[in-house]
Amino acid sequence: MTKKTYINGVGCISTQKTFDTVFLEEANVNHDENVLAIVPPAYKEYISPAASRRMAKGVKNGIVASALAMKDANVESVDAIITGTGLGCIEDSEKFLKSILDNKEEFLTPTSFIQSTHNTVGAQIALLQQCKGYNFTYVNGAVSFESALIDAKMQIEEDEANSILVGGVDENGDYTTALFKLNGRIKADNTAPYDVLTSKTSGAVYGEGASFFVLENEKKDNTYAELLDVSIINTLEVNEVESEIKSFLKSNHLEISDIDALVLGFDGNANFENYYRNLAENAFAQTPVLYYKHLSGEYDTASAFAFWMASKILKTQEVPEIVKVNSVTKPAYKTILLYNQLSGKNHSFTLLSK
């Protein structure tokens, strides 16, 4: 009998106030910015100021989000730490490259280089917790977080670990952001208001964040949800998504009518919104459809924010008005499907149940 995977703790640092709150009651939609910055927690409560000064933004957010998740799950230690990140500690990468240029390749300090690798976040969390177990970082574009989830789920099913910390972390760097604006990944400056659902322009509203989860093989009083399944597919045409979802649900003995909420990754990029719009208007027209990137912004591991949101909905049985795409409601929320893609690639399906 394979073990089931339960979400027993969550921690989320995002471009909204998602800590010290119940559930998005303080969230607001920013229509003026095309790049959203995180709402910073009180770092000094988690990290000593001396250590904090030397840490990249993403590392600090990862440490706090993981601490929140562990506290939420009432666990002191975990067997493994698995992180997903798209760009890693991009700010330190930028600093290092800039200092190479500024100093004409001489007198370089290696600090920024050491701290710029993608696995810095997982390493720092392990150091703070003295966790000597399996520690792995997935860098896989927009399915980095889902890759980490699949690994964690397999380890729990195969009884290789009882308790695993899984997270998705990305940070904004000024130079990289400028490049993303140049190549059209981010919406052009000075074209506000930036609206995610009704956008007619290409490019996305960008963001950053860190969300961590304690996944365990045991259901507890404080369990949020069960992670039923995760599937990732590199490329799909718009007209293939619905049948892909149907077969994904079928493998879990479910149909579209069994889904109580569908969480979609609308990010304001008009070129690729049909992946979502087709589902929302046709197959899932009778289902509550939700979105989140107007709150979190778009980034490689933004789907971890959706995972946090879906976990909260299953636990509180409430759907905040601010995340609704349509006006369909359900008396109870038992099964939630998450679907995300970025620029037509890296499609992921994640299934959670109460």
Automatic annotation (TrEMBL):
UniProt-listed SUPFAM superfamilies: Thiolase-like (SSF53901)
Keyword Translocase: no
GO-annotated cellular components: cytosol
Protein name: 3-oxoacyl-(Acyl-carrier-protein) synthase
Keyword tags: Transferase
Chain ranges of the Beta-ketoacyl synthase-like N-terminal domain: 47-219
Matching Pfam families: ketoacyl-synt
GO biological process: fatty acid biosynthetic process
Single Gene Ontology MF annotation: 3-oxoacyl-[acyl-carrier-protein] synthase activity
